[in-house]
Amino acid sequence: MTLDRPGQRPTMLRTFTVLLFCIRLSLGMTSIVMQSQPELWIETNYPQAPWENITLWCKSPSRISSKFLLLKDKTQMTWIRPSSKTFQVSFPLGALTKYNAGLYRCCYWKETGWSEPSKVLELEAPGQLPKPIFWIQAETSPLPGCNVNILCHGWLQDLVFMLFKEGYAEPVDYQIPTGTVAIFSIANMTPESEGVYICRTHIQMLPTLWSEPSNPLKLIVADTFPKTWLLAQPSPVVQMGQHMSLWCRGPVDGVGLALYKKGEDKPLQLLDTASTDDDESFFLNNVTYSDAGVYSCLYLLSWKTSIRMTSHNTMELVVVDKPPKPSLSAWPSTVFKLGKAITLQCRVPHPVLEFSLEWEERATFQKFSVDGDFIISNAERKGTGTYSCSYRIEAHPNIWSHRSEPLRLMGPAATGFLTWNYVLNEAIRLSLFMQLVALLLVVLWIRWKCRRLRIREAWLLGTAQGVTMLFIVTVLFCCGLCNGVLTEETEIIMPTPKPELWAETNFPLAPWKNLTLWCRSPSGSTKEFVLLKDGTGWIATRPASEQVRAAFPLGALTQSHTGSYHCHSWEEMAVSEPSEALELVGTDMLPKPVISASPPIRGQKLQIRCKGWLAGMEFVLYKEGVQEPVQQLGAVGREAFFTIQRMEAKDQGNYSCRTHTEKRPFKWSEPSEPLELVIKEMYPKPFFKTWASPVVTPGARVTFNCSTPHQHMSFILYKDGSEIASSDRSWASPGASAAHFLIISVGAGDGGNYSCRYYDFAIWSEPSDPVELVVTEYYPQPTLLAQPGPVVLPGKNVTLRCQGAFPGMRFALLQEGNQVPLQFQSTSGNSADFLLHTVGAEDSGNYSCVYYETTMSNRGSHLSKPIMIWVTDTFPKPWLFAEPSSVVPVGKNVTLWCQGPVHGVGYILHKEREATSVQLWGSTSNDGAFPITNISGASIGRYSCCYHPDWTSPIKIQPSNTLELIVTGLLPKPSLLAQPGPIVAPGENMTFQCQGELPDSTFVLLKEGTQEPLEQQKPSGYRADFWMPAVRGEDSGIYSCVYYLDSAPFAASNHSDFLEIWVTDKPPKPSLSAWPSTMFKLGKDITLQCRGPLPGVEFVLEHDGEEAPQQFSEDGDFVINNVEGKGIGNYSCSYRLQAYPDIWSEPSDALELVGAAGPAAQECTVGNIVRSSLIVVVVVALGVVLAIEWKKWPRLRTRDSETDGRDQTIALEECNQEGEPGANTSSPSSVSQETSVELPVPI
To answer: Coiled-coil annotation: which residues (predicted)?
Structure first.
């Protein structure tokens, strides 16, 4: 909505639609603040220029609070803790600049935490009043027709408030309230009062200064009362003779209610306004069968009105001697699986107290449940049988309902069939178990044999045990695989895609004079092609060309050429399926066409495909029994599609097709094989989709989901009309109603048109809607352009043109966030136009396109670059920034970047006080860069940029932010100080003082790593104070400042000296080093040097083991001597600021001093010499003792040899007696003698 005010460009951000159900709105002043929401407003001492000095006030509704928080742009700006609890505080902002402009809210502290924020205050740039907010305030007195209060909050006091309505140049109302809120009353709302309203404010003494328009508010007078709802207490199922109440309510208060029963014109009972306000209900006493029926309630109006009553929800009252029977179902099916349980679900449509489950085969069996779920297991086959359930309600806990219909549960043997999967699994498990038992027996036999033969080799037994363990692990793994045979997803084993076969000729009127057969493969890895005749004869082999095709010239047809032809494509390790068969029937006839169609469905459209092999032929469709052709189609390529718009019984029959040349005399082909169309009884078509987008890249994972509400179904997956996969999980899982087909890694030949069907014995479903799977990255990337441009007004049309590289392709348009392509289009050219009709806000987003060929597995191109479509009446605001910074030394280069979300649109750069644009950047570049080289004082100034569309458009253009370019190095540098110091604790306030050389200059505060200045001021003297409240850790960094003249000669100073700021509770730790080294020398001292990052500090040195600090120093140098060895040990140092003597830094890393000097070292050396001498004496003594003992050794050795020989002879004799139990034994003495003589055993 645009107002006729000069210089104003309001923006419609959003539209609120308020449905007024003829609500009477209060004329009096009502509270504009929610119970827990604070109030935010502005006060100023410059009534004619409020932006010169602004103070924000925040007021809590509770009148007491200990803390208040001010937020800017959803982040915390500052908070105030008053000395005593109060209800309002002020936040001084000072002069309004672009740095403190933004969105403001405030909160206050409650006992449970921060309150919800106030309404949002938007402060624009200096020179503008804040944008008001606009909403509707209503009471709860709904009467048709009356008064509406619209509230406008202007944030400042003593403003003039204007109410505007779309379509009217003059305001429809104005007010001058004493506060910050104006209340506009619209009396007696009628359809003429509908429309879009906004409000604006201006200063009383300055009527030319207007605020921005508020957000628009759209008022619509509804022509329908809202619905009522009806509830039965305690239940809609009631026993005869009981009492009950019907509770009727609706969102419209202040009106009566009437109770109606279906079949009766007059209301049964009435409730007036007073009764509804007291929350009364309709009562039914001593209910009988005549009270059963369908009830509803309507509003009871005491006045005439044209407002319609909507359809109301109804409630069915059931009167029984017993509650009606529930329903009983089984999940996942009524057939038990091995080791699986079944859940029986007992359900009724109203609340119950308890459910009961009975088992007919066991009279004593009974289970109870509150939610109606009963888990039945089939342990020892004791779960099969017939079950039923009942329930009771809370109103009549002693009366049980009628029983449900019986439900029979069957075991695996009761189903009447065994699946191959089940038999295969059990056979594998049994064979593995038998092999495991056999292997264990072999291991036990080996172990027993080794023990009997006294075989001591451990490796044999260990190897056998290792093989056994390996086999056990393998068995367990295989059993796990056997359990996983029936998976959730059926993997599609894609065959090598079959090639396409067609014929070409240079004699269109007599193709048989020179015929060439072409074979083309959708797979890029094809090496060669093979042409076969009649399925056996090898005609020729051709290598694949760059277009992955090969030609087989036949020349002029002869009788030897007649037959059926098809071709294969060969890859490295696979041969494709054969192509469709091309049949040559004679030397002067066209090839025989092929006819096909999907299963016909009664009442739906059917397409019959006729493939004719040669291009430029015409097609004719015949029906058996009809002499004349049913349909004829002109030359449309190598195939044609005949359409039967609505399939009925009369359309059933045998069909065939023929082709003929385009010009007379016609040359005809043989008729195709007949196609029988019979309408069969079918299930509804399944729901078929891909879990992700059907436009995929090679190697992606694709899952097709085919589902139906019917149970016990098997599924078939088709690609381009051919069956490629099936899922018969219905036999193993009787409750299945969906199948998932998986392509683990998509290849270039896996694209195509996929569909699915399900069947149950002899009945099939209709084919699903096809899904076009497109495999991208095969053809070059297309380009996508928006016409007339990427920014379009709501309600207008926009055309997206996708330009491809090849003709005859099919195009698809995609939108980010949508899995399914928005539109498809097939064209004979190389581009497609997609029309977005009457666009709205929901059409905004990123679009891209792709093109692909339909004859060769939907091989597609790369996705185009996305293009952003904006549905708005105003171009989005661009952003202007400088790189590397907007503060540049003289002679350097700088680049001004103008960037926005709209692509493909030019930008234009403006400089303040210059009539013409500085630079124009065309829409062909990728970004809006405006370089300025060898910068000088002439480049100083304020810059802005905006879009420069290259098409005529009524859409408004907004300027970007204002960027001030400052060129330094022309004036003396200022000085920069931080108060209270360079180290500040988090949450404290800080002030930077920048002192310049010239008065009335503009000062700018800079931070290293930030492109834009942090803040700028223009004080009256030589110094500017930059206040930073509640500093945080991210405020740490290196700061500097400059000053400049904003009038001729527009010169700026050099940077001040850099000042490093630390926001921390403790200053950073210092470093500690030793000079000349960390090792003491005799008579020499060591100097420890402690250094910190801040000036004006006092250092302290600490020694481990000593509680009090050892030394203090202002320069950080400490001299350490090693008298009596007391200098050795670990040292660390820290420091404190002289301005903050109570804050100490963290200690430095420890430094260890080692070595010795003086008398202590001499004493240590003497002790070491004495100890070394004693060690030498002990070693020499041990050597002497060993030498003496060695001389005695030969005699001991001889005596021991004799003794050991006798002992060993006795041991061998005992061993021989054990090994030969039948041998004669000898006396020990004789054995000893023999052994000592024959077997002398040396030591």
So the answer is: none
Beta bridge partners of 134: 152
**394 burial via Cβ count (<10 Å: 0-12, 13-18, 19+):** exposed
501-516 residue pLDDT tens: 888 888 877 888 888 8
Closest CA to 813 of 805, 804, 825: 825
How far, in Å, CA of 590 to CA of 620, rounded? 14
d(CA 319, CA 1051): 95
Query: At 881, which helix (H) or strand (E)?
Result: strand 879-883
Cα-based distances in Å from 754 to 169, 573, 769, 858: 60, 26, 9, 11
Q: Which of 460, 425, 454, 430 is nearest to 442 (CA)?
A: 460
Query: Cβ distance 1042 to 1056 under 8 Å?
Result: yes
Query: Does 884 sit behind a cis peptide bond, omega within 30 degrees of 0 on the bond before it?
Result: yes
Using an 8 Å Cβ cutoff, are 702 and 776 in contact? no
* CA pair distance 876, 13, nearest whole angstrom: 11
Angle at 1083 between CA 1079 and CA 1087, to 5 degrees: 50
Which has the closest alpha carbon to 163: 142, 184, 143? 184
Q: Which two tokens stand for residue 305?
A: 């009105």
Q: What angle do CA 224, 226, 231 make, to 5 degrees?
A: 145
Task: Choose among 563, 480, 561: nearest CA to 513.
Answer: 561
Neighbouring CB atoms inside 10 A of 1044's CB total: 24
Helices 420-452 and 458-483: crossing angle, nearest 10°? 170
How far is 826 from 852, CA to CA, in rounded Å? 10
pLDDT of residue 735: 52
| Residues in Cβ contact with 949 at an 8 Å cutoff, skipping those fewer than 6 apart | 789, 791, 875, 905, 906, 923, 955, 957
Contact present, 347 and 327 (Cβ < 8 Å): yes
H or E stretch at 869: strand 867-871
pLDDT (0 to 100) of residue 15: 32
3-state secondary structure (DSSP) of residue 539: strand
Other Cβ atoms less than 10 A from the Cβ of 493: the count is 9
Determine the Cα–Cα distance for residues 1114 and 215; give it in Å rounded to an integer.
64
Q: How far apart are the C-alpha atoms of 394 and 793, rounded to whole Å?
A: 60
> How many CB atoms are closer than 10 A to CB 333?
19
β-partners of residue 848 are 814
φ, ψ at 1138 (rounded to 5°): -65, -25
CB < 8 Å & 24+ apart, contacts of 526-530? 526/499, 526/569, 526/570, 526/571, 526/576, 527/570, 527/571, 527/572, 528/569, 528/570, 529/499, 529/567, 529/568, 529/569, 529/570, 530/567, 530/568, 530/569, 530/570
Tokens, residue 291:
């009270």
The Cα–Cα gap between 215 and 15 comes to 7
Burial profile 107-134: b = 16 or more Cβ within 10 angstroms, e = fewer: bbbbeeeebebbbebebbeeebbbbbbb
pLDDT tens, 108-149?
877 667 788 888 888 877 777 888 988 876 543 334 455 778
Euclidean distance between CA atoms 375 and 343, whole angstroms: 4
Closest to 133 (Cα-Cα) out of 72, 199, 197: 199
- Which residues of the chain are under the pLDDT cut of 50? 1-34, 139-144, 413-419, 421, 455-456, 459, 477, 479-488, 730-732, 921-926, 1157-1165, 1196-1243
**Residue 1175: strand, helix, or coil:** helix
Extract the runs of DSSP E, i.e. beta strands, from 1158-1204.
none
**Cβ proximity of 811 and 850 under 8 Å:** yes
Cβ contact 550:518 at 8 Å = yes
Between CA 704 and CA 645 the distance in angstroms is: 29
